[in-house]
C-alpha cells in the first residue's frame, strides 16, 4: 500500500515540478530578465544539450569521451556554412547539422569499438585537438568567410533573425536564441527520458555494466555502442548549431574545442552521471559559477584584499577547488548525491529500509 | 640525407621531453590508476619555482634541483591530501578532480608569479655541432642525456632497492601487497612524488629556450598523452619509446609533408589511432583478460 502511495507522491511532485519549470523557464526568465541574463541561460541550455548527449555515452554506456567539442564543432560549422554560402534560414540548418554530426559519430564510433576506457578517452582527446586544425585547413575561405572570426557575415545575420511566423512574445526583446535553445533542451530531455526507459536504454546500461553478460542475452554490442556514439554526437551537433545562434559566431580554436569538451564532461559528472536531469543542472553550475565568482565572491577575506584583476585570474582556481570539494562531498553528482541523501533522510524518518532504487534507470 | 638526420635529431630532442612527461603520467597511472590531467600544470608550477630561485641569484642547476625537491614533496602532499580521499571513487570522479587541480594550479601560478612571459636563464651553453653535416644542438644532447639519466635512476630505484620492490608490488597488486605489509599509502605518495620531480626537470629544461607563460605546458601535455597511449599506459618503457616516436614523427611531418603544414598534430594522433586499433592497449601495455 505504502509503495503505491510513494509512487503517487513521486508522480505528483514530478507534475508540480514540470509546471513550475515550464513557468519559470518558459515565461518568467525570458520576460522579466535582461538579455545579459537570458544570454547566460541560453549558453547553459546548449551546454546542457551537449552534456545530455555525452551522458548517454559516458553515463549510461560507459564510454568516456573528452572529444565532444569536435562534434559540437561539426554542428557549428554545418550551420554556419549553410547560412553563409547557401542562404539557408537558421532553423532549416538544424536537421542537416544533426545528420552530419550523427554520421561523424558513426564514423568515430566504429574504431572506438576496439579501444576501451582510458585509451578511448585519449583517442577522443585527439579528435578534439585535431578538429580546429583540420577546419582551419580544409574549410575553404569562400565557403564560410566569417568562420573562425568573431562575427557572422551580413547574410547570416539576417538568417539568425526569427522567421515571420514566430509569435511576438518570442521574437520581441531578442529572446529568439533563448527560446530555440530552450526548445532543444526540452526535446532533448524528452527523447532521453523515452530512450533511457526503452529497450535500447536498458541495453546501453547492460553493455556498460557487463559487456560479456550483455552479449550472452543477445544484445548486439557493436550496434549499441556505435549508436550511442552517434546519438551523443547528434546532441553535441545540435548544441553547436545553437551556439551559432546564441553567440552569433562560428569559431573553433584548439583551446575552445578542448575547453568545451572538458566543460561537457564536468557538467555530466557535477550534475550526476547516468541521471536524466543531472547534466542540465551541471551545465547551469558550469555556466553560472563563473559569473557568481566574479560578482559575489568576497573581495576581502579576513585581512586579505583581493583586486578585481587578481580575482579574474583567480576565478579558475576557485572553480577548480570548488570542483574538487564537490567531488569529496557528492562523488555521485548533485542529482545522484541529492537522491542518496533524501533516501537516507527518508529512511531515518520512517525508521525502516525502502526498496533499493534501480541504479541508473529512474529519472 | 643530412637534413633528414638533422630533423631526426631535433625530433629525438623534443621526443625526450614528451617521453619524460609521459614517464611521469605512467608512474601516476601505475600506482593510483589516475589519468593525471594536472601533470603538465604541476610541471609548470615547478618551472615557475626554478625561475623564482634563479631570479634571486641561485645558480640554475641548483635552482632546478631545489625545485625538483620541492616538487617531490609537493607531489607526495597532493596525493596524500587531495587524491587519497577519493581514491576509491569512479575513474570519472578522479578525472574531474585532476581537472580541478589543473585549473587551480594554473591560475594560482599566474596569480603568484604574474602572467607575463618569463625568461629562464639557460642551464648550459647554446651550441651546435656538425658531425658529418648533421646538426646536433646542445638542447638535444642535454634533453636526451637527462632522459637517459632519468631512466637509469628509475631503473635502479625500482629494480635494485627494497622500496622499489614494494613500489612494484603495489603497482601490480594493491590488495595483496597491503596484506603482506607493504605500506601502500606511502608507495602511492612516492609515485606522485617521483612523477612531480620528473615533470619539474622536464619542464624547466624544455621551457628555458622559449620562455615561460601560463599555457606553456598544455601542448606538451597533449603530446605526452599521445606518447603514453602509443606506448601503453602502464609501461615505462612504452612511455619512452612512444615519446621518441611522437617527437620524431612530429618533426619529420612538419619538414616533409607540406600538405599537412600547420597540422603537425594529425600524424601523431593518426599513428595512435592505427596502433590502438591493432593493439588496443598500446605497443608495450599489458593486455587485460576479462574473466566471466
List the helices and strands and how they pair.
The complex is a heterodimer of chains A (363) and B (292).
Chain A: H1 2-32, H2 35-60, H3 68-86, H4 90-112, H5 117-138, H6 154-159, H7 168-171, H8 176-196, H9 199-209, H10 211-216, H11 221-247, H12 254-271, H13 278-296, E1 300-301, E2 304-305, H14 308-329, H15 333-350
Antiparallel strand pairs in A: 1-2
Chain B: H1 2-32, H2 39-55, H3 60-83, H4 91-113, E1 128-129, E2 136-137, H5 138-160, H6 162-172, H7 174-179, H8 184-207, H9 216-231, H10 236-256, H11 266-278
Antiparallel strand pairs in B: 1-2
Helix pairs in contact in B: 1-5, 1-8, 1-9, 1-10, 2-3, 2-4, 2-8, 2-9, 3-8, 5-6, 5-8, 6-8, 9-10, 9-11
Overview of this protein structure:
The complex is a heterodimer of chains A (363) and B (292). Chain A has 363 residues and is mainly alpha-helical. Chain A folds into 2 domains: 1-32; 46-271, no CATH class. Chain A has helices at 2-32, 35-60, 68-86, 90-112, 117-138, 154-159, 168-171, 176-196, 199-209, 211-216, 221-247, 254-271, 278-296, 308-329, 333-350; strands spanning 300-301, 304-305. A two-stranded antiparallel ribbon of chain A has the order 1-2. In chain A, helix 3 runs parallel beside helix 5 (117-138), helix 4 packs antiparallel against helix 11 and helix 13 runs antiparallel to helix 14 (308-329). The two termini of chain A are 22 Å apart. Chain B is mainly alpha-helical. Chain B is globular. At the A-B interface, helix 5, helix 12 and helix 14 of A face helix 4, helix 9 and helix 11 of B.
Amino acid at each position: 500500500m505504502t509503495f503505491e502511495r510513494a509512487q503517487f507522491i513521486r508522480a505528483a511532485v514530478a507534475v508540480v515540478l514540470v509546471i513550475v519549470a515550464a513557468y519559470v523557464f518558459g515565461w518568467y526568465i525570458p520576460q522579466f530578465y535582461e538579455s545579459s541574463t537570458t544570454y547566460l541561460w541560453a549558453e547553459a541550455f546548449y551546454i546542457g544539450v551537449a552534456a545530455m548527449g555525452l551522458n548517454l555515452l559516458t553515463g549510461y554506456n560507459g564510454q568516456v569521451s573528452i572529444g565532444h567539442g569536435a562534434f559540437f564543432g561539426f554542428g557549428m560549422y554545418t550551420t554556419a556554412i549553410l547560412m553563409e554560402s547557401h542562404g539557408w534560414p537558421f532553423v532549416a540548418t538544424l536537421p542537416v547539422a544533426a545528420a552530419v554530426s550523427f554520421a561523424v559519430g558513426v564514423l568515430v564510433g566504429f574504431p572506438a569499438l576496439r579501444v576501451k576506457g582510458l585509451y578511448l578517452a585519449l583517442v577522443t582527446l585527439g579528435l578534439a585537438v585535431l578538429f580546429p586544425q583540420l577546419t582551419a585547413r580544409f574549410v575553404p575561405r569562400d565557403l564560410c568567410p566569417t568562420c573562425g572570426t568573431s562575427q557572422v557575415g551580413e547574410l547570416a545575420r539576417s538568417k539568425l533573425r526569427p522567421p515571420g511566423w514566430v509569435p511576438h512574445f518570442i521574437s520581441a526583446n531578442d529572446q529568439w536564441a533563448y527560446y530555440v535553445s530552450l526548445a532543444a533542451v526540452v526535446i532533448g530531455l524528452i527523447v532521453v527520458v523515452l530512450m533511457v526507459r526503452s529497450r535500447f536504454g536498458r541495453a546501453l546500461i547492460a553493455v556498460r555494466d557487463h559487456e560479456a553478460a550483455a552479449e550472452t542475452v543477445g544484445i548486439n554490442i557493436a550496434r549499441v555502442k556505435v549508436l550511442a556514439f552517434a546519438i551523443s554526437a547528434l546532441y553535441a551537433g545540435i548544441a553547436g548549431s545553437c551556439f551559432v545562434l546564441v553567440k552569433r559566431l562560428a569559431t573553433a580554436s584548439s583551446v575552445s574545442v578542448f575547453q568545451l569538451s572538458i566543460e561537457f564532461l564536468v557538467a555530466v559528472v557535477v550534475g550526476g552521471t547516468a541521471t536524466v536531469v543531472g547534466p542540465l543542472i551541471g551545465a547551469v553550475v558550469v555556466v553560472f559559477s563563473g559569473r557568481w565568482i566574479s560578482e559575489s565572491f568576497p573581495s576581502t577575506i579576513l585581512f586579505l584584499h583581493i583586486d578585481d584583476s587578481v580575482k579574474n585570474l583567480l576565478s579558475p582556481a576557485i572553480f577548480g577547488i570548488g570542483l574538487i570539494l564537490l567531488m569529496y562531498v557528492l562523488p555521485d553528482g548533485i542529482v545522484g548525491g541529492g537522491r542518496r541523501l533524501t533516501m537516507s533522510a527518508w529512511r531515518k524518518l520512517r525508521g525502516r529500509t525502502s526498496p533499493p532504487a534501480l541504479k541508473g534507470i529512474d529519472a | 640525407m643530412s637534413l633528414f638526420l638533422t630533423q631526426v635529431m631535433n625530433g629525438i630532442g623534443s621526443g625526450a621531453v614528451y617521453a619524460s612527461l609521459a614517464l611521469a603520467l605512467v608512474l601516476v597511472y601505475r600506482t593510483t590508476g589516475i589519468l593525471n590531467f594536472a601533470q603538465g600544470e604541476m610541471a609548470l608550477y615547478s618551472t615557475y619555482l626554478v625561475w623564482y630561485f634563479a631570479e634571486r641569484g641561485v645558480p640554475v642547476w641548483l635552482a632546478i634541483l631545489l625545485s625538483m625537491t620541492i616538487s617531490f614533496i609537493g607531489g607526495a602532499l597532493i596525493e596524500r591530501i587531495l587524491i587519497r580521499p577519493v581514491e576509491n571513487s569512479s575513474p570519472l570522479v578522479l578525472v574531474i578532480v585532476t581537472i580541478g587541480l589543473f585549473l587551480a594550479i594554473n591560475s594560482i601560478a599566474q596569480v603568484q608569479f604574474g602572467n607575463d612571459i618569463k625568461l629562464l636563464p639557460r642551464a648550459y651553453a647554446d651550441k651546435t655541432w656538425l658531425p658529418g653535416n648533421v646538426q646536433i644542438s646542445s638542447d638535444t644532447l642535454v634533453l636526451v642525456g637527462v632522459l637517459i639519466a632519468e631512466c637509469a635512476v628509475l631503473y635502479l630505484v625500482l629494480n635494485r632497492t627494497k622500496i622499489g620492490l614494494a613500489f612494484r608490488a603495489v603497482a601490480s597488486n594493491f590488495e595483496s601487497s597491503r596484506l603482506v605489509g607493504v605500506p601502500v599509502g606511502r608507495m602511492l605518495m612516492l609515485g606522485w612524488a617521483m612523477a612531480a620531480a620528473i615533470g619539474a626537470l622536464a619542464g624547466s629544461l624544455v621551457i628555458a629556450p622559449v620562455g615561460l607563460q601560463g599555457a606553456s605546458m598544455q601542448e606538451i601535455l597533449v603530446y605526452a598523452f599521445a606518447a603514453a597511449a602509443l606506448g601503453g599506459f602502464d609501461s615505462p618503457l612504452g612511455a619512452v619509446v612512444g615519446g621518441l616516436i611522437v617527437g620524431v614523427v612530429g618533426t619529420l611531418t612538419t619538414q616533409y609533408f607540406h600538405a599537412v603544414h600547420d597540422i603537425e598534430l594529425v600524424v601523431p594522433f593518426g599513428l595512435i589511432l592505427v596502433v590502438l586499433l591493432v593493439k588496443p592497449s598500446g605497443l608495450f601495455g599489458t593486455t587485460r583478460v576479462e574473466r566471466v
